[in-house]
Every structure is written in structure tokens, then in C-alpha cells.
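Entry 14. Structure prediction run on the chain below.
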Amino acid sequence: MPLPREERYADAVAWETRQLLQCSRGRAFVLFTSYATMRAVVRLLELELDYPVLVQGTAPRSVLLEEFRRTPHAVLFATSSFWQGVDVQGDQLSAVIIDKLPFASPGDPIVAARIEALTAEGTSAFEQYQVPLAILALLQGLGRLIRHRTDRGVLAVLDPRLRTMGYGRRFLDSLPPAPITHAVEDVRRFFDR
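Output returned:
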């Protein structure tokens, strides 16, 4: 995967998402940190997928969730409001695909004020505030997938910074123990079992 700031990132997310959805046979939430990337990926995939596609913004949240729950092999493309407070138990939701690490926007006034305050104290706002906040958001995304002790599935984080940046280890260490892979074939074998 290219870095999220690269122009070809949405194309790479679409390609990788298509591979993962074929493995999971739909039954997935594809969660984004921005509407622009979500719209770009949906445009690239909606006509190519063999699964019912639901997209945030086309209907109220409650309608989309109900549609997802009752539609076999559905795929829901969504942003931040679907990262938490959503409950889909069992095999209907078997994969959560996340386009990039969910860092809060430094342009948000509250985030900016917190960063400024921590920096003024001589504290690394990134290490002490932004990374822990993003880890919490990632765990909330994972929480959409694992709602009961018998639930199983795949969490796919497409952001290469998870592996290439030092803080990536903090994200991985925060997750429950599970096999980690970078190969779609491993994901395919998981779903074929």
C-alpha cells in the first residue's frame, strides 16, 4: 500500500478492499476516516462488487444498519459515525476493513487546542494524545466486529504506517492476541475454514 497522502491511495484501497471482500464474501464494514476517500473508493468498486453495497449518506444510519443486518453478504461503506455504537452480531459481519489509522484531524478546534496545550507543557502531543486517541478509535472499529466471545472475523487495516512507523507497534500491541498477516491468501484460508 502507498502512504495515505499519496495520490494513488484510493485506488490501492479499492484494489485491496476488493480482494478482502472476495475472501469474506461481503459481510463487511469498510470504514474510512474521510468522506472524500470513501466516495472515491465506492465509485471504483460499486459496479465491480458481487455483493449488495450500502453507503453512508444514502439513507439514515438506522435504515442502513437494518438493511445491512437483513441483507446477506452486504457491504457497508461508512465513516466515523459507524466506528462506534453499532451492533451486528454473528456471521453477518465478518470483516472490518479500515482505510487508514484513525488519527483525529489537527484542524478540529478541540484537537488543535489540546495539541497546543500539550506542546506548551513540553509534552509530545502526538505520542501522548494523538496516538492514544487513534488507538482508542481503532479499538472501537474492531468492536464492531467482535461483539460476543464466539464472534470471529478479520480486521484489515490498510494503512502501511502500521508496519513502517514506530508508533505502529503501539497500535498492534493494543489489539487482542490474534494472528497478524500481510497476505490475502491467509485471509482467504481463514474464511475457507
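The first helix runs from residue 9 to 24.
Filed with the rest of this week's runs.
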